[in-house]
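New here. Your pick:
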Amino acid sequence: MTTFQSLKERMDAAGVTRVDLRVTDLLGRWHHFAMPAEQLAGEALTRGVGFDGSSLRGFQSIDASDMLLLPDLESAVLDPTEAVPTMAIVCDIIDPATGARYSRDPRNVIAKAEAHLVASGVADTAYFGPELEFFVFDDARFQQSGNTAFYYVDSAEGEWNSGRDEAPNLGFKIPAKEGYAPAPPFDALAPLRWQMAEAIQRAGVEVEIHHHEVASGGQCEIATRFATPQRKADETQWYKHIVRNVARADRRVATFMPKPIFGDNGSGMHTHQSLWKDGVPLFYDSNGYAGLSLTARHYIGGLLTHAPALMAFCAPSTNSYKRLVPGFEAPVNLAYSARNRSAAVRIPTYSEEPRQKRVEFRPPDGTANPYLAFAALLMAGLDGVQRQIDPGDPLERNIYELKADEAARVPRVPATLEAALDALEADQAFLLAGDVFTPDLIERWVEIKRDEVRALQQRPTPYEFEQYFNG
């Protein structure tokens, strides 16, 4: 356990003069409050630091805006993106009126989910391992007003630049859908990814491997080791923070937007999950399909049963559903398989080691708030185990070779954010169990997201002008 004294010794040894308090808003964006290192003492550690909760998305209204940030000393990390030694500390949100943790604090939700898992008796530990993909662009411009709307992104390695006058253009552009792990000189982003990966490691997150991803135009992935849900959500926030800031320092921009490029692969956040009890992995059975235990099958049953509602937290942007389009190897089919990457749940078979046995839920993307997404996935899987939900047979055949009537019998994730929100409103009891999610949080989430849907519905797009201006 980290004490203030032990943290102070670390800070003194590193020459820390600045402290950064980090907090995640309801929709998943990190915010920070900075203070001189000597101010991290006394009431700041016992009661918390005051801030205006009404100014963070999804939190309190203006008439009840006073809230407190309580630093979690266990989360303290030297920020590798800062030139001056800075200790960054993730905070919990406290309601000063009650002294209790705030119900809409995403970090509180994931903490309650882990406690609910232990109380269930099913397992005492969950492990989550998200695979975050992202694009790195050399230029990104976009604007929306009453009479204009446009976006423009560019990457020197993009296939669309094969004919650009670069004085000289040396070729080595990556064709669409051929970007998976090519060696340099095609992979021009390897040095930048190394900078990102090494900074991520300095933040205490174990990096396993990094590579270029499938899409042209700068798609990348840095794989990190699994951890318990809250810790992994904290690490996911660090991952995004570091990737963005290292890219910016290199005069580039990184985005976790699911579908920034038309006609090529989008970016996801495939999320690996497993349950353990008393140090024993619960998802392994050498006699089961793909080495899965009955517990794992029931967990999958929970994921597939609640998948439409889960999408409201796991793929929570209107842009998410431009990635989740049938026919493009997108994980849209509500089935499980050890082979089909178009299945929502995949069973990795790289290793036969029991400790490696896990299930991978593939529809999430990087616009998700990791605290809420991981909590929702854990609650869905746990509900499947408790209710012994049978996921049915695995989908072993190539889904693109199925006859039309066969393919129609395979259920799919919602096609739009609006449909996902409808599903969440109809299916939320599994989230409310143990008071993990609260009705007011879900209501506020749906309200904000429906506003996003309506905003998009009201705006003409450039492609609509191409289609209809002279129609």
Summary: The chain has two domains: 4-102, 125-468. DSSP finds 13 helices and 17 strands in the chain. The chain has a mean pLDDT of 95.
